[in-house]
Design goal:
A hairpin with a 2-residue loop joins strand 10 and strand 11. It is built from 19 helices and 18 strands. It has 469 residues and is of the alpha+beta class. The chain is globular. The structure holds flavin-adenine dinucleotide and the ligand C=CC1=C(C)c2cc3[nH]c(cc4nc(cc5[nH]c(cc1n2)c(C)c5CCC(=O)O)C(CCC(=O)O)=C4C)c(C)c3C=C.
Amino acid sequence: MTSQLAAEVRKTKSSHLLLEASDRFGGWLSSTRREDGTVFEHGPRGVRPVGAAGWNTLNMVAELGLESEVLPVPYDHVASKNRFLFFKGKLHKMPSGLGGVFRTVPPFSRPLLQSVLKEIMVKRGKAEDETVHAFVERRLGAELADIAIDCLCRGVFAGDCRQLSMRSCFPPLFNAERARGSIVLGMVLGTGEKQAAHMLRLHVPPSDLAKRSNKESWTQWSLKRGMQTLPEALQDALMCEKHVEVHKNVPVKGLTRAGSGWEIKLEDGAVKADHIISAIPAQALASVLPPAAKSLSQHLREIATVSVALVNLEYEGSILPVTGFGHLVPSSEDKALLGVVYDSVPFPQHSRPGAPSTRLTVMMGGAWFQEEFGKPEGLAEQELLGRATRAVRAHLGVTAEPQWSYVTVLKDCIPQYHLGHWKRLESIESSIKQHSLPLTLAGASYYGVSVNDVILSGRRAAESLVGKV
Ligand SMILES: Cc1cc2nc3c(=O)[nH]c(=O)nc-3n(C[C@H](O)[C@H](O)[C@H](O)COP(=O)(O)OP(=O)(O)OC[C@H]3O[C@@H](n4cnc5c(N)ncnc54)[C@H](O)[C@@H]3O)c2cc1C
Ligand SMILES: C=CC1=C(C)c2cc3[nH]c(cc4nc(cc5[nH]c(cc1n2)c(C)c5CCC(=O)O)C(CCC(=O)O)=C4C)c(C)c3C=C
């Protein structure tokens, strides 16, 4: 079958070939659509419409004809205003709005404003990079670092803020300190010409949909039939293109140099390419590069990933004691339990019509996966389901049994930008240059893990080649 594919590919005049190892496109964008209309997300569930990267994604959504599929969550929605922490056995609403900044909001022992004002006086750091925890502890105090930032890193990277790099995970805040000596001043005054020029280079004029997101102050959006709709629509659009071929179930097994290009080894057969855009995880790329690219492979292998155990739950009726986007759990409270998303609050349209129901997603593991669960392979679903429902009972007081559940282990699903990630990226880029490899990198392993970042990285990779076509 595959050798037939290799022969077919050689025969066609396609100038662009997309190869996907698995039986579906979209990677971690994965949604279950039940026959009764319920949608459960097993990967990302909301995309932020903010900034050039956010507009770029919405422009693509519009171009793919998905405007009518968009489910926006506006600024004044309860899911935008209410986000919780589970700390010392209790749920706490995170400070929001002006009131939340001036008042002391438990579990914090002083108003956020006090920490923010003090931040302006803190001396500028000198390190080339710093862990997220060290940076925030130095500038805003131990309490915010131990609780709020610890949670934030678990809810974006499923990662440990004591290992993650401030420079690579939160570049605007790192650059703000560098430019103005303070996060607060940097955010208020801007970080100077360098950043502005960078934004201009992005050149993302907003579509009507992106303008609408701005006008209506969306905080995030999803799609009526789930996030998986996006790669499906993209696949359909690509299949209509004359010079593009897309293939699934075709893992790239190896790469060797052939003249000025590559020979791509498939399971059975091979195809030739002038240039490769790699959108596979860094470690997967390392394992297919030729031995001559040993040092590049080594740097790619250093980009670690973590696994997440994800449990979707559906309960009969409206069973939540609070309403909001969900809650995060600091590692000091429970290392294994990262947080719970209250999916039916931001996206009630994904719930089955008729009788009320509550959909939750419990996420576990991340940077603590190995120490808490062992190897991700072969874990008992019942154990993970039990752990998830016990957390829902302890955190939310829900004693009912779920009427539907789905357990999955997402192995190596999220890259970790550990301390010194920027240096690794420099070594990777310079290795590609030094060996004149016709290779461009895209995807979550390098310059941002969000859906927006990843889509923008693909666009940039393609644009960098346009001159060569
Ligand atoms: C649980 C979870 C929740 C998340 N929540 C959000 C969120 O709310 N908002 C947000 O913006 N982001 C979120 N993210 C992050 C975001 O979803 C991911 O970072 C992003 O989808 C990664 O996309 P990617 O294309 O870089 O990588 P992947 O999705 O990993 O895709 C890589 C593809 O390469 C294929 N592949 C691998 N090896 C080969 C090979 N040898 N040959 C051919 N193909 C190969 C794989 O099969 C896969 O399809 C979340 C991630 C997870 C895991
Ligand atoms: C409330 C609980 C949350 C859990 C549990 C959670 C898990 C989780 N998230 C990611 C990756 C990303 N999440 C992102 C955005 C995001 N996540 C939550 C909450 C939880 N996430 C919220 C409220 C948001 C929106 C943030 C906002 O509006 O300010 C993103 C995108 C970040 C961006 O820059 O756009 C990513 C990436 C993983 C891997 C994960 C697993 C435990």
